[in-house]
């Protein structure tokens, strides 16, 4: 593993500033140690095509198990990793691990269409980002069209032209691009028409809203927008049959959520595939 950490940007480190400085420094040090000691691991959550119930993809989600067995969610440590620059080597490791998992599945005769990997804006703007992606694909032997990168709207906003060129380069390699947490950022919509995006991910908050007086209207808006632009739409956080039914009825293409499958380590994923994934083919 690469042990050179580059410093991230202060501007990205906002939410977790609430932590005491000393607390933060300790957590950061523990995170670096955990990475070196390989105590970070990936879980995989299935993605399902709503109309066919077909198992079509996976999202790789990172976890950190501390020495004393505590599980720290990525929302707690990804901002720290971005701040310290660890995200660059961490992100490269996630990418490689996900590609290798996918190749293992393919060798076992299980071939979902894609594995989706979350990419931080700090990682994306590194000069060697595309090279890292290419290397992960080459080393694992995963064909590029089985990889999807999930970026957030912050990627599409920052330094538009350089990022645009980079996205086109990835797209030309055959890699898929999804906009994660769509609708939660503040970017203009014009970029959607310009950028080589394949998929919009409806944020979990809008799926949860289905159960409130607001109802499914935002989810519906995103689905219609995606369709107008010729994009696939996937909803995250489907927890109930009602969520599934409402999203299916509005024509949302795909979904992931606890109703179908939680993020799972590799062994449990294989069990899940035997029970649900294969049966749904
Ligand atoms: P995300 O990419 O939007 O991932 C979806 C989150 O929703 C995951 O949380 C997943 O476990 C959770 N989720 C999925 N279905 C359900 C459901 O039905 N109910 C509920 N309550 N939650 C559901 P998780 O794994 O805690 O990850 C949180 C965020 O951390 C991710 O949001 C992503 O932004 C970030 N993240 C995770 N892994 C990585 C990584 O490898 N690299 C980077 N840069 N960020 C990551
Ligand atoms: Mg994601
Ligand atoms: Mg998301
Ligand atoms: Mg989300």
Descriptive report:
The protein has 281 residues and is an alpha/beta fold. It contains twelve helices and nine strands. The protein has helices at residues 21-36, 74-84, 86-107, 121-124, 129-140, 153-157, 160-173, 190-194, 204-208, 217-228, 241-249, 266-277; strands at 40-49, 54-65, 71-72, 114-118, 147-151, 176-182, 199-202, 232-236, 254-256. Bound molecules: ligand C2E and magnesium ion (MG) (3 copies). Ligand C2E binds next to strand 2, helix 2, helix 3 and strand 6. One of its GO terms (molecular function) is cyclic-guanylate-specific phosphodiesterase activity.
Low-confidence stretches: 1-16
Using DSSP, what is the number of strands? Answer: 9
Radius of gyration: 18 Å
Bound molecules: ligand C2E, magnesium ion
Sketch the major β-sheet.
8 strands, mixed, barrel
What is the residue-mean pLDDT, rounded to a whole number?
A: 88
Structural class: alpha/beta
First-to-last CA distance? 38 Å
Shape: globular
Strand content: 15-25%
Helix content: 40-55%
Count of individual helical segments: 12
Strand order of the largest sheet: 1-2-4-5-6-7-8-9
Order of helices and strands: HEEEHHEHHEHHEHEHHEHEH
What is the element layout, followed by pairings?
Elements: H1 21-36, E1 40-49, E2 54-65, E3 71-72, H2 74-84, H3 86-107, E4 114-118, H4 121-124, H5 129-140, E5 147-151, H6 153-157, H7 160-173, E6 176-182, H8 190-194, E7 199-202, H9 204-208, H10 217-228, E8 232-236, H11 241-249, E9 254-256, H12 266-277
Parallel strand pairs: 2-4, 4-5, 5-6, 6-7, 7-8, 8-9
Antiparallel strand pairs: 1-2, 1-9, 2-3
